[in-house]
UniProtKB/TrEMBL annotation:
GO terms for cellular component: membrane. Keywords: Membrane, Transmembrane, Transmembrane helix. GO terms for molecular function: transferase activity, transferring alkyl or aryl (other than methyl) groups. The chain crosses the membrane at residues 67-88, 100-117. It comes from Nannochloropsis gaditana. It holds the Pfam family UbiA. Gene3D superfamilies: UbiA prenyltransferase. InterPro entries: Prenyltransferase_related, UbiA_prenyltransferase. It is a multi-pass membrane protein. This is Chlorophyll synthase. It is found in: Membrane. It comes from the Eukaryota.
Length: 146
């Protein structure tokens, strides 16, 4: 699950590379848009984001978390809409508008996935649960010697 979040984050990071194509070229940096060209890079970007999230939705369905999988699919659809409306049309001109429109759905999708995974954990206590009140637990962790 962590890797899936990293891959989706990589797709979002690629969006930022379109802003600095000229500077990257001048400095000899091989960002994705410079290395592959704008058209290929924009498809790599949205593909990374979409395939990762679709894979996570498939995994959630596989482990029996159908409601969360459907919720995630519902959050992917607006992202795809905004990809076609803004980003795939012109990633340089519409990069900020695309991120402002689509990124909230990506973040909600990550939170949906976290809720599904947390639900699967059942009654297991988190590793940081000391059985104490929060203030006492923090003081205990801060004063504990390695």
């Amino acid at each position: 699950m962590v890797v899936s979040g990293d891959l989706a984050g990589l797709g979002i990071a690629i969006v930022n590379d379109f802003k600095s194509i000229e500077g990257d070229r001048a400095m000899g940096l091989q960002s994705l848009p410079v290395a592959f060209g704008i058209d290929a890079a924009k498809w790599i970007c949205v593909g990374t984001i979409d395939v990762t999230q679709l894979g996570v939705a498939g995994y959630l369905a596989y482990i029996g978390e159908t409601a969360y999988a459907l919720a995630l699919l519902g959050l992917i659809l607006p992202q795809i809409f905004f990809q076609f409306k803004y980003f795939l049309k012109d990633p340089i001109e519409y990069d900020v508008k695309y991120q402002a429109s689509a990124q909230p759905f990506l973040v909600l999708g990550i939170l949906t996935t976290a809720l599904a995974v947390d639900k699967r954990r059942g009654d297991r206590k988190p590793i940081y649960d000391t059985g104490r009140a929060p203030r006492e637990a923090i003081v205990s962790l801060m004063t504990r010697r390695a």
